[in-house]
Amino acid sequence: MTTVEAVAAGMPVLVTRCGGPEETLAGLDGVAGRLIEVSADPAVIVEGYRQLADLLERGELDPGYARETLLGRFGAAAVADRLMDVYAGSGTAPGAGPTMTRERV
Q: What is the pTM of this model?
């Protein structure tokens, strides 16, 4: 979520191509920031920062577009829609499950 929060705040991001960050920024590399390879080599990070600085200098990042894209993916309405789809598929709406009681031991 840190990546989403940074992009929502208009901050350019430098994240690694590993699972969550790569999935979060799918289609937004060069728009919200830069994706770099996972590496123990500091030169990879340095090069990523240089590329990010070049994007900033050339004005190629589009934080507004990136924010709107991530809002469409992870905003409250998007999450609520996906959650309702899950409940609809399971046939169980929130609060409609069996009533739980606690017995004293």
A: 0.73
